[in-house]
Amino acid sequence: MVDSIMVEPSGPLRGVLKAPGDKSISHRALICNALARGEAQISGLLDSADCRSTMCCLRQWGVEFEESGDRVVVRSPGQSQFQPPNGVLDCGNSGTSIRLLSGVAAGLPFRNQFDGDASLRKRPMRRVLDPLSRMGARVSDADTAPFWVDGSAGALSGFDGEIAVASAQVKSAIVFAALRAEQPSRIVEPGPSRDHTERMLIAMGADIEVGDATILVRPGAELEPQDVEVPGDVSAAAFWMIAAAMTPGSEVVLPNVGVNPRRTGVIEVLRSMGATIDTTNPRAVSGEPVADVVVHGSQLHGTMINGDMIVRAIDEIPALAVAAAVSQGVTEIRDAAELRVKESDRIATTAELLRAMGVTVSEQDDGMRIVGGDLRGGTVDSHGDHRLAMAAAVAALAADPESGPTMIQHAAAVDISYPTFWRDLDALRHVPAL
Ligand code: S3P
Hints:
Layout: E1 4-7, E2 14-16, H1 23-35, E3 37-43, H2 49-60, E4 64-68, E5 71-77, E6 89-90, H3 95-105, E7 111-115, H4 126-134, E8 138-139, E9 147-150, E10 160-162, H5 168-178, E11 185-188, H6 196-203, E12 207-210, E13 214-218, E14 228-229, H7 234-245, E15 251-258, H8 265-272, E16 276-285, E17 288-296, E18 304-305, H9 308-312, H10 317-325, E19 330-333, H11 346-356, E20 360-364, E21 367-371, E22 379-381, H12 386-398, E23 406-409, H13 421-430
Parallel strand pairs: 2-15, 3-14, 6-7, 10-11, 18-19, 22-23
Antiparallel strand pairs: 1-23, 3-5, 4-5, 7-9, 8-9, 11-13, 12-13, 15-17, 16-17, 19-21, 20-21
Bound molecules: shikimate-3-phosphate.
Residues 24, 27, 96, 167-169, 172, 193-194, 314-315, 338 line the site of shikimate-3-phosphate (S3P).
């Protein structure tokens, strides 16, 4: 299969672009509604390979989906009526599917075998399997997929303690198991990971109390199906925010983007680099903060990205590293060792991408140091990582026009979270100057 795309450098980006549905909220709208008995309608659901993985697994447990356009009706017998799957629960490339559904599986009285693609098979799973086993689920002793989770040993006990990593996937898995436990659970978070699971379950009637860094889950409440309107994905919109912010003369409007404070690190980092970004028309949609984001391009300067900011911008670091590459001065990224266990080792693959385009970058165990300057067109590889393919496209647009186009290999990886990415790129670059 030919899976490369050539991207020419571009002048300023201009236009209005509707970002695809939020991936994290789409997974949760499907899973949380599957736990409840009855019917709910989801609009704006992200239609991408990762969300399809979640739907395929839920179907194996007996959940039905009726799709029309960007609306999906979820019809479920409820978690207590789930059936044993016919085969392996194949989560494809999706870390969110495999980790969240493992938490659900801990509350099911049969064995569930999980697997995924070559990238997912490399990613750490003990972070989820260990707490589930402490709660009384039987789990295989594998470190990575394939593995199994079996809740048939009897009732789960409550979880009490701090989770090992600031990860919404791990937290959500424990919350799903905690809903089926015999005692209440107290989950302490080491950092501010996204809270979409808690928000959605509370809206569905779960007895969950959220403090600054602690989540209390009291089991037993009946979940009610809940219609969900999925906002635009800030992590997808981020590619256009970054591309526009770093190109003087750009003006891009991104309507209806989710601006949950645990996801908006990218906006704050860009502002700390001197970017002009306004969020207008703030409102709440299905329990999530939403706004229109307006970005004007300018010359950016280097910054430091570390601490809790990493958790709040975790998926945007590769593209922010591209912005750093055309900024004045040096950018340091620290405390970001989690990037090494994403869809690719994103410290290594981002550094490789920047070097291939002429940037001076040094890699550390938990981050990188990027010296701002010019980007040159070159040949780069996404390594099958969707966010690397899109970060490469942002770099290609900003490359010195004299240096020519950039060839991006394994470009179809965008299908994981943003299938219309290449079309949207053309729409923004082809709009004539205002
Ligand atoms: C996600 C959580 C994050 C993020 C991923 C989606 C989620 O992963 O990187 O893309 O939807 O819960 P971690 O929880 O492993 O940090």
